[in-house]
Design goal:
Layout: H1 2-22, E1 24-25, E2 31-32, H2 36-51, E3 55-59, E4 63-67, H3 73-86, E5 95-96, H4 99-105, E6 111-112, E7 119-120, E8 128-129, H5 163-184, H6 193-206, H7 212-220, H8 222-251, H9 256-264, H10 269-286, E9 295-299, H11 306-315, E10 332-337, H12 340-352, E11 362-366, E12 382-385, H13 393-404, E13 412-417, H14 434-437, E14 440-442, E15 455-461
Parallel strand pairs: 9-10, 9-12, 10-11, 12-13
Antiparallel strand pairs: 1-2, 3-4, 5-8, 6-7, 13-15, 14-15
Helix pairs in contact: 1-2, 1-3, 5-6, 5-7, 5-8, 8-9, 8-12, 10-11
């Protein structure tokens, strides 16, 4: 019934469009007749402009122009629904004027509602200016920005998006903003049933498989971009609290056996096992002889260095696809973190696992990734950069460049990233930029599905020029 009602409205609107298009009074009161060329050129703008609450007038007697009018919030919502249901493609270009900019050009005036022929009072403080040409969706994808009215939402338009895809976008964005609201109401971020529930729902939403069009649209939606910096920052803080809690819990156990059993019950333990095996598989594809990998550095290891522990488990085990037993000295991992507290916790945790555990191959260093001791990394075969090393592309590239400058030519580098909705949790790392290509040769990108969150970039360091790199991303 809801759809039928909107279809009925659509018929009325399109009838209005056709009647106005065929005979539009000009400034002299006569009918405006367009040539075929003018008609074809302006039909798209006229059709979309009308549905967005804009009317055309004759300008200089030759061309159609768009005249912006003021709309109430309810008018805007109606036009948005009509656009979504009837047009499919929507629009892909629009300019937004602030109230001050509008006031500087003209004063507010009455206009006609698309549902009525009577004047309506403007309730919207920010008019939308569609005076510039509207670019077909096949050429670009953008989001509409209406920031001055809290009752209005951003509409992200994606090429080829159908009604079902747009419905999926709205559902995901609604869920995301709802989770963010719950997150903001938390007293603190220490593990608790409430905190665990909020972040569990967030992770579950972000790893849910969706079409690429949908995830791109969600990530570019204004409602998402507005909360993303705060959301990621909160996730980072919550992750630190979670890891600290479990590191302390494991270190408090009475004996190594209980400590190892407690470690195995960490909620995301299997995720780290799967991620580490994915990274080793990618390394193996690029570097077929893992027996030559003995010294590993992990930058951004945190309070609970599960990846480092799993690396030693896989490489130093008696058997398995990544075992290097019988290949000489066992592998070791240097864990580096800027937080002194994180290094202290992870050191205590590993000590509690006992002298017979693989943790005996763990070493620790408190240091900033951009200010490491000179020559430290020269002897390492592989260097990992955690997902939280660098807040955004620019910072990540700066850290990467600094780290690679400390490595030997050809050293393997692993950088974690994300793709799709997982970008809500961590910043994505673009491996195709000039800054990255100057220091790494991208060889492979992997986007796994399932519970694994982080993407992974694996490559070989090149100092001062584009080189050979392997990139592995996890979806």
């Amino acid at each position: 019934m809801y759809l039928l009602n909107h279809l009925a409205l659509l018929i009325g609107v399109l009838s209005s469009v056709f009647s106005l298009q065929l005979e539009q009074p000009n400034q002299k009161g006569s009918a405006c007749h367009l040539t075929d060329e003018q008609f074809e050129r302006d039909w798209f703008n006229f059709k979309y402009g009308h549905l967005f609450g804009y009317r055309h007038h004759q300008s200089q007697g030759d061309f159609w122009d768009l005249e912006p009018r003021w709309m109430s919030s309810e008018d805007w919502k109606w036009t948005m629904e009509m656009r979504n249901i009837s047009l499919g493609l929507g629009i892909a270009h629009q300019d937004v004027m602030t109230g001050n900019e509008k006031a500087a050009n003209s004063s507010p005036r009455e206009s006609l509602s698309p549902l009525s022929t009577s004047p309506i009072e403007s309730k919207m403080s920010t008019p939308v200016d569609l005076s510039s040409p509207i670019t077909p969706l096949s050429e670009t994808t953008t989001s509409m920005d209406i920031s001055s009215d809290s009752t209005l939402t951003s509409i992200s338009v994606l090429e080829g998006a159908d009604f079902e895809q747009r419905a999926d976008v709205e559902e995901i964005v609604d869920k995301l903003t709802g989770i963010y609201s719950r997150m903001q109401s938390l007293g603190d971020l220490k593990p608790s049933p409430e905190v665990n529930g909020v972040f569990g729902d967030l992770v579950g939403l972000c790893i849910e498989p969706v079409e690429e069009n949908v995830s791109n649209c969600v990530m570019s939606d204004q409602r998402t971009t507005e909360i993303l910096p705060s959301l990621r920052s909160t996730c980072s803080a919550a992750e630190y609290e979670l890891e600290s809690h479990w590191a302390e819990k494991i270190a408090r156990q009475a004996n190594p056996q209980l400590a190892q059993q407690t470690l195995a019950t960490f909620p995301y333990n299997q995720n780290y096992i799967d991620l580490t095996r994915l990274e080793l598989s990618s390394l193996l594809a690029i570097h077929p002889d893992l027996s030559t990998i003995r010294k590993i550095a992990f930058i951004g290891s945190g309070p609970l260095p599960l990846t480092s522990l799993q690396l030693l488990e896989e490489l130093n085990s008696e058997a398995g696809p990544f075992s290097r037993r019988g290949k000489g000295i066992e592998a070791e991992v240097l864990n580096i973190d800027f937080s002194e507290k994180a290094i202290e916790l992870s050191n205590s945790l590993c000590a509690s696992l006992g002298p017979d555990h693989h943790a005996k191959g763990m070493k620790f260093l408190q240091a900033d990734a951009t200010n490491l001791p000179e020559g430290l990394l020269k002897v390492y075969d592989v260097v990992f950069l955690a997902a939280l090393v660098g807040n955004g592309q620019e910072e990540k590239e700066a850290v990467l460049r600094k780290v690679v400058g400390e490595l030997k030519e050809g050293t393997l580098v692993v950088v974690r990233s994300v793709r799709g909705l997982r970008g809500v949790l961590y910043p994505e790392f673009d491996v195709t930029t000039k800054g990255v290509r100057e220091v790494l040769d991208v060889g492979a990108v992997v986007h796994p599905y399932g519970d694994v969150v982080n993407s992974v970039v694996v490559g070989r360091a090149r100092r001062g020029k584009v080189g050979e790199v392997v990139v592995v991303e996890k979806l």
